[in-house]
Automatic annotation (TrEMBL):
Enzyme class: transferase
Organism in which the protein naturally occurs: Streptomyces griseochromogenes
Signal peptide range in chain numbering: none
Transmembrane segments: none
Keywords: Acyltransferase, Cytoplasm, Fatty acid biosynthesis, Fatty acid metabolism, Lipid biosynthesis, Lipid metabolism, Multifunctional enzyme, Transferase
Entry EC no(s): 2.3.1.180
Name of the protein described by the UniProt record: Beta-ketoacyl-[acyl-carrier-protein] synthase III
InterPro entries per record: ACP_syn_III_C (IPR013747), ACP_syn_III_N (IPR013751), FabH (IPR004655), Thiolase-like (IPR016039)
Residues forming the catalytic site: 94, 236, 266
Domain Beta-ketoacyl-[acyl-carrier-protein] synthase III N-terminal residues, every copy: 88-168
Pathway: Lipid metabolism; fatty acid biosynthesis
Length: 316
């Protein structure tokens, strides 16, 4: 969906959206398409890219599960032909994929699994107020996935260390008020707006820049890297101005910053893996590159990790 298409039904314009977000288009699921369908498609391609159709566990990062109960991951695993494996959801909004990477890495490090399929998927437009030009202009739907396998710490592709954090005191900055036990257990009426996603844009902007920059700095210190060692920085594609501000705060050359927000918008848990896939596909990330990942989302949550990119390519 292009900015021009949005402008035909909302009080907005291509220029207004581009100058504030850097987004020119985003993808929107067709009616009846759910998060699980996006996750299955991404999972199939990741398994195919890995050269093997199997995994011992599946971790799905999403804020838009098919249903409040049960988790969406077991159904995704079953549809991928992975019935019987461990499968669970991770809910950390736009930080979800980094949290899911940490969970998958932990499953392997503890010996519980040898191969873990990690998926970030969100049909985020399904929780947006269609008349809210701000959120509708920013968010899109999408999914990306990777396969982790057991290996040696010095191998290309080895992930870690991780820096993860949260601040629940600021939970209301990014929220859907209705639909959970808090709203359901109160007997009062619920406003229609409470069923839609809301965020305090200015406050979220400040927190996103601060948290991703600080988390990135901590994980670089843990890994023994300097900012000059980072070949590519893959940050959550929240907003073009946020990306530029984080890079400036880190004193990172913007030419090393991965960007695809102009083409896909903010895809929440799908953001980091989609940015990785696009950067690898167009040759911007190459084998041997030192890659820094960082994300920020509701909760508030944030997280970062590092890896040296292995010799592998995405499947579209």
């Amino acid at each position: 969906m292009t900015n021009e298409e949005l402008a035909r039904r909302l009080d907005t314009s291509d220029e207004w959206i581009r100058t504030r977000t850097g987004i020119s288009r985003r993808h929107v699921v067709n009616p009846g398409v759910s998060t699980s369908e996006l996750a299955v498609r991404a999972g199939q391609r990741a398994l195919r890219s890995s050269g093997r159709p199997d995994a011992d566990a599946l971790v799905l990062a999403t804020t838009t599960p098919d249903r409040p109960c049960p988790a969406t991951a077991p159904e995704v695993a079953s549809r991928l032909g992975l019935t019987g494996i461990a499968a669970f959801d991770v809910a950390a909004v736009c930080t979800g994929f980094v949290y899911a990477l940490a969970a998958g890495t932990g499953l392997i490090s503890s010996g519980i699994a040898r191969r873990v399929l990690v998926i970030g998927a969100d049909a985020f437009t399904t929780i947006l107020d269609p008349q809210d030009r701000t959120t509708t202009a920013i968010f899109g739907d999408g999914a990306g996935a990777v396969v982790l396998r057991a290996g040696a710490p010095q191998e290309p592709g080895a992930i870690g260390p991780f820096d993860l954090g949260s601040d629940g005191d600021l939970a209301d900055l990014v929220a859907v008020a209705a639909g959970g036990s808090r709203q359901r257990s109160s007997k009062g009426p619920t406003a229609e707006a409470d069923h839609y996603f809301r965020m305090d844009g200015k406050a979220v902007f400040r927190q996103a820049v601060l948290r991703m920059a600080e988390s990135s700095q901590r994980v670089l210190e843990q890994s023994g890297w300097r900012i000059e060692d980072v070949d590519r920085f893959v940050a959550h594609q929240a907003n073009a101005r946020i990306l530029a501000s984080v890079a400036a705060r880190l004193e990172l050359d913007e030419r090393r910053l991965v960007r695809n927000i102009d083409r896909v918008g903010n895809t929440a848990a799908g953001s980091v893996p989609l940015a990785l896939a696009d950067a690898v596909a167009d040759g911007f990330i190459r084998p041997g590159h030192r890659v820094l990942l960082s994300a920020f989302g509701g909760g508030l949550t944030w997280g970062s990790t590092v890896l040296q990119w292995p010799d592998c390519a995405p499947v579209y």
